[in-house]
Amino acid sequence: MSHTVLNCGYVPLVDCAPLVIAKELGFAGEEGLALNLVRQPSWSALRDMLALGHLDAAQMLSPMPVAMSIGLGGLPARVDTLMVLSVNGTVFGVSNDVALDIGAVQFGDAKALLSALSFRKGTALRVGVPFHYSMHRLLLSLWTSSAPDLQIEEITVPPPRMADAVADGFVDAFWVGEPWGSVAVGQDVAQLMMTGKDVWQFAPEKVLAARHDWVEAHRDAAAQLMRAVYKASAWLDAKKNTPLAVEILARSEHLSMSPDLIDPALSGDIVTKRNTAPTPVGRFLQFHKHAATFPWRSQAAWIASQLGADAVGIEKAKACFRADLYRQNLASIGADMPGASEKEEGALHFETAVASSRGHMILSPDAFFDGRTYDFS
Amino acid sequence: MNQDLRILVVEPDPERVRAIFDALKDAGWSDVKALGHMSALDRTVREFAPDIVLIDLANPDRDTLEHISHATETSKRAVALFVDETDDILTQAALSAGVSAYVVDGLKMERIKSVLETAIARFKIMRQMQSELDAAKQALEDRKTIDRAKGILMRQRGFSEDDAYNLLRKTAMSQNRKVIDVAHALVTAAELLS
To answer: Which keywords does UniProt give here (chain B) (predicted)?
Structure first.
């Protein structure tokens, strides 16, 4: 049987797991795909390779396809989000000096942390983020916008260098995806103060993206890829599979690092400070449950609005989150479908049952730390 | 010829920096600065105010450069040059040579082109040299391994050097493997058993 070769770009972070598992455990092969994972040195490089056709699909930061679709940042191109690859999974940490300055703050208390940082004397807080068009940066802006006294300087630092950037005094704090927060803690240069979830409880973090024209021309390959990734995300969600997932990701051809650094993100047991017991964080990184893979058009709209898009831009953004393809391609393998493709973002404070194709599905809380809600319907 | 462009080369490898420097200087650009370390990138771009930044396509600092383009005022918008749709050929050449350029001032494409062509030519040579160097290193390593494997056969089986090599070659052919892989296996096995 001949397989369709599909080149998919990724950046080595723990949340590339659905792609790695889809390939390594044969979910892609079962779908008739020869999934070729191509590691990229930077988000800019990945974006250019996708836009110029050197890659068929790619893992992207959730704001990247939105930014490209509304013509922001370097290279305008119609890029679609086929599905969400992961929800949450980022951490905010501060240097040991800043930690001393602000004293004891309850881990995960976004409001208390904000006031503690606002009282800090001195210059602007330099915060390292991985990329300008990242959920990290949007959450940082949203969170700090409610503290006018707090001056923030955003500095882009490639995640693998985040720990060094703190150690060298180049940044005072960072917002980064795992394993790089755990790496900084492991090197005893920083402490983790909260996770992304503490600012927005259900933030789409990485997405599976492809050029719009490629998707239109390769309907079958897109469907095969989506089904393989969907099955991989279901596999990843089973607790019993975590140890094997950690081992596979740790291999040299993927993340090439010690399993100890990968385990926190997948188990949710986060070590916030060196030589202390881990803090269990529920829903730290979600791949599957609570319709995590569903590309809500309202998520795209929220991202676009945070990027300053007008009504036209918001509609363009909604169109690039392909809930239609998700419904078309995943119903056949029994994926439950929500009744609507948009929701009021931030409205859910508890797990909530909503109408779905199979009766009802449970959605995760998606509230923001300040209680705001966003309705784009 | 307007040769008054300020050019910043972001490249951690001093050999490569020198090669690109020389190429640019030979072509008539003298206001060239190199930077190998990322932590100074932001400051250097602000202070040196380059017109063009040259960087390897695979350099992770590209994301930082992209950000600087957002941070500086709009008149100084950085553009990833090889995606400038005005020139597909240049784009392809830049991609294949692995060079990426950022234009920090709204310069005319024509002025940038010659800088870029010079840099691309040099990047290509550097890349070729690098892969030749890697290949030579690998060949040397392989040679050592094969010599060790031959030595083992000569010591343990009393073979001549030629016979030892022929046995390796025959084994490789019959197992549909490379000579080097058979030699590796033999050396590893001998280490385990010694």
So the answer is: Phosphoprotein
